[in-house]
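Input sequence (374 aa), recorded before submission:
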Amino acid sequence: MATDFPAEIERLRHTHASIEAVTDPQALRARIAELSEQAAAPDLWDDPDAAQVVTSNLSHAQADLKRVEDLGSRIDDLEAMVEMAGEEEGDDAAELLAEAESDLASISKDLSELEIRTLLSGEYDQRDAVVTIRSGAGGVDAADFAEMLLRMYLRWAERHGYATKVLDTSYAEEAGLKSVTFEVHAPYAYGTLSVEGGTHRLVRISPFDNQGRRQTSFAAVEVIPLIESTDHIEVPETDIRIDVFRSSGPGGQSVNTTDSAVRITHLPTGLVVSMQDEKSQIQNRAAAMRVLQSRLLLLKQQEEDAKKKELAGDVKASWGDQMRSYVLNPYQMVKDLRTSYEVGNPDSVFDGDIDGFIDAGIRWRKQQEQAEED
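Predicted structure, token format:
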């Protein structure tokens, strides 16, 4: 069936207008002008941390504006191409319409991705993310599953050109990981990845079982926003206990001959953060404090949200604990249990192709929030 280009172009324009209403290009231009003025200050790099924040914010704002403006121009170009095709005949018209079909698909995909970004309006959604994966029930299979999830998220970040940094790794005795914590540095990394938080379930024939039995194992994923210097999360020294120990690698092999690894326990909440991937005790302590502050920041937000719901007289459980199943046997399927989004190719998912799950999760979460407001 021939594509109804006028209707499709109208749909693209409507979606683009909705995105513009949220992103507000005029406000973006004003912010870019303000940040550009700050970036041009001669004393900018007297404070390297503050300078990095300014230049990073400027780069992100410029990229956001360019993305919105470019999509508007591409829709105009598509409309012009369709009009030209209408004036041509034969092979020339067919060639232009084929190119228009391709451009339509490309613009629709990019608009959908940008539309998802507009749904990320939480207080910390723009932040970098700190992700922790912990193996759960399932023994060595669960530890192996935790390592598979780490690779999945690192491959996803690599596909998008996002920088990552592993902060702490605790290896299991036989194979895999007990736990791992890493940062993802990208605009809206926290808002994007926060929908990945919860319990992940793997069903497969265990490669560690001599009898080839099917094994179900679990891993927990936690996603928190990275703390920023402006957050002012005070952690009194009397509220923490700091232990130092020797870093270790797979199989218990020593990877450091000094006690450079750091474990910080927050006594009032019982939160524990360990860091061993930096070279010095001072660096590990700083990284551990940053993650602890991030977790306390999220805990504070969760307590405030719970209080608001309690005052409203409507206390609901949020996300179900078990949020996604990865089934490799007796059939092949990865299914999100909240959104019902599923794919039949687990290999591509474990290779980082998880954007469909993330997009469906963000849309689902927005629907839940709107339902609670109604």
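Checked by second reader. The chain has nine helices and eleven strands.
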